[in-house]
Amino acid sequence: MIAKFLKGFEKAVIIALITMMVIVVLISTIELGRLIISSILASEYYLLEINNLLEIFGFFLLILIGVELLETIKAYLSEQVVHVEVVLEVALIAVARKVVILDIKEFSADTLFSVAALVIALAVAYYLEKRGRLEFYRRKKAGSEPPPGAE
């Protein structure tokens, strides 16, 4: 009885999250379009300045993060599993967004090295996860099951 109620409640929350995420991504996309058009019309010779480009790229990556989060929520709703690959993609996009809009003059070398280490760590984690998944499917297709704990 309680388990059934909690399952229904969880599904309702996930559907609400998907609905809100769709609304946020839609509004953000419209706002990005408005930002691009107003930046072009306000600039001389209809060319975007570097500051405007960085703002637009940051906004674009923010929308991509929203889309990836939406994909994560949809995957959880359909499979009841959070895919590590999608979470790592969201993290990589978020860090890439930060790197794009980062003003390197404002931060110390230690901070910049930390951001670089974070990018490398996420990229390696993504690579290893992707490689492990491909190896798993290759073995599954070949018919040989990996030893327990090797998945």
Short structural summary:
The chain is mainly alpha-helical and 151 residues long. The chain has helices at residues 2-42, 50-79, 84-101, 109-142.
Structure description:
The protein is mainly α and 151 residues long. The protein has two domains: 80 residues; 50 residues, no CATH class. The chain is 81% helix and 0% strand. The protein contains four helices and no strands. The longest helix is centred in the first third of the chain and has 41 residues. The mean pLDDT is 87.
Summary keywords:
81% helix, 151 residues, 4 helices, mainly alpha
Q: How would you classify the helix and strand content by structural class? A: mainly alpha
Termini separation: 35 Å
Strand content: under 5%
Count the helices. How many? Answer: 4
Shape: extended
Describe how the helices and strands are arranged.
Blueprint: H1 2-42, H2 50-79, H3 84-101, H4 109-142
